[in-house]
Amino acid sequence: MRTGDGDGRADVADNDAVTETTTLDDRWAVFDRWGPYGLLALSTLTAWTAADALGMSTGARRACGVLIVAAVVLELRWNRVVRTRPGPSAAGARHYALRWAVGFALTWANPLFAFYAVIGYFSTERLLTRRLRKAGLFATAVTLAGSQSGGLPPSGELGWALFGALLAANTVLVLLFSHFADLEEARGRARLETIAELERTNTALQQALDENAALHAQLLVQAREAGVADERRRLAAEIHDTLAQGLTGIIAQLQVVANTADPALAREHVDRATALARHSLGEARRSVHNLAPAALADDGLPKALEKTVAEWEERTGTPARFTTTGTVEPLHDEVAATLLRIAQEALSNTARHARAGRVGVTLSYIGDEVTLDIRDDGRGFDPRVRSARTLPHSRLRSSGGTPTGGFGLDGMRARAERVAGSLDVESEPGQGTAVSARVPLVRHD
Ligand SMILES: Nc1ncnc2c1ncn2[C@@H]1O[C@H](COP(=O)(O)OP(=O)(O)OP(=O)(O)O)[C@@H](O)[C@H]1O
Ligand SMILES: [Mg+2]
Which top-rank group of organisms is this from (predicted)? Predict the structure, then answer.
């Protein structure tokens, strides 16, 4: 995995460490395979050259010959065994002991065979278990000290003293080196463990990144779906508040025309229907371009509400009063448009459903909130029954699947919530209706 330059460098370092360990192991394998033959050949050559000078007897020479052959056979046999059982084992310990015995006997016959016996120092780790290593090193040190002190057995007290001192020196040195080797090995092991840990962490990190990517993709899809649903709600509200409301008004006007014989009255209502159609068309165009309602294009919210209420009064013939309380502040376009649309729908509902005698619309600026109340003294309704009836699925006719209406109150609430506000409807049959919207006072920027 590559998560950046830093990680990349760490990976390269890990690979280097692993390669380094492998190369070292390979070299030791070559030494284990060929080293004993090389050292045996070297010691045989030097021992033979110095045989006369050392006064070797013919018997000793023959014994050496037999031992050399034994050593070669031993190594050949071991090279076959080691393939199936690499690393410290009982078989390895046996091979070490036999090789030591042959080396000791050869060095006894001619001290120059110590060149062969020294191999004992280099093979303890790969042949002996940790428990036997020190014993193996000491045994090899005995052979080497014997050779260094002039040959085995030592002669005389001085010879034994020299042998003893050399054995002590060899043992100390060898144990010291073995200690450092152990430390180095421990460090190597720790390094390998760190590398393994790093790999595990890298894998876990990669998994976390993969999961994160999947989660991110899922979130994107959800966000898109939420955006689509939100836009669909907005469009539904816009269609309801422009086209649907306009068409309702036009139908009402045309019904009057259809039911009257008076041409002047018919003319008046046809004109109103035409004006409503024009107005609705304009509003629909504005909502397609996501513009504020036409009434707000020239005036602030109080003025626009006042005109709306006056027009409504004129159209319906129901007395309506508009009041403002608190200090008027210029509102953010979105907030002003929300309140105007709510007022329009509430008034439309009053005209269609309430049969009211009077209507009051109040806009109040209270601290950091603006409230809009639309009250009528009409026939009222039970909001709980309505909310049960207009749950989303019940809005569809079982036969045709087209909406049956009932969007107005939900649309008003959705508009208020969109600008972090709320909407309350208080009504009871025969007790009139009060629609109250409460939104945060966000000033015009
Ligand atoms: N001022 C009111 N007086 C009496 N009843 C009302 C009033 N406002 C709403 N209602 C009742 O609540 C119902 C739901 O109103 P809502 O505005 O949600 O739908 P609608 O007006 O019937 O249809 P739409 O607004 O979708 O054209 C109305 O059908 C009506 O029965
Ligand atoms: Mg309605």
Answer: Bacteria
pLDDT tens digit sequence for 358-410: 999 999 999 999 999 999 999 999 988 755 444 443 333 333 333 345 789 99
Boundary (domain end) residue, out of 99, 133, 153: 153
Among 433, 287, 282, CA closest to 352: 433
Q: Is residue 49, in this structure, part of any structural domain at all?
A: yes
Cα–Cα distance list, 302 to 204, 362, 372 (Å): 62, 10, 11
Widest CA span in the chain: 156
- Residue whose C-alpha is closest to residue 88's, from 120, 45, 128, 55: 128
Classify residue 244: in a domain, yes or no. Answer: no
Residue 426 lies in domain: 298-445
- Confirm or reject: Cβ of 395 under 6 Å from ligand 1: no
- The residue whose CA has the least distance to atom 15 of ligand 1 is 406
Residue 158 lies inside a defined structural domain of this protein: no
Characterize the bridge pairing of strands 359-366 and 369-376: antiparallel
User: What atom in ligand 1 is closest to the CA of residue 380?
Assistant: 4
Among all ligands shown, which has an atom nearest to the Cα of 385? Answer: 1
Distance of CA 144 from the midpoint of ligand 1 (Å): 111
Looking at residue 356, which CATH number applies to its domain?
3.30.565.10
* 114 and 143 Cβ atoms separated by less than 8 Å: yes
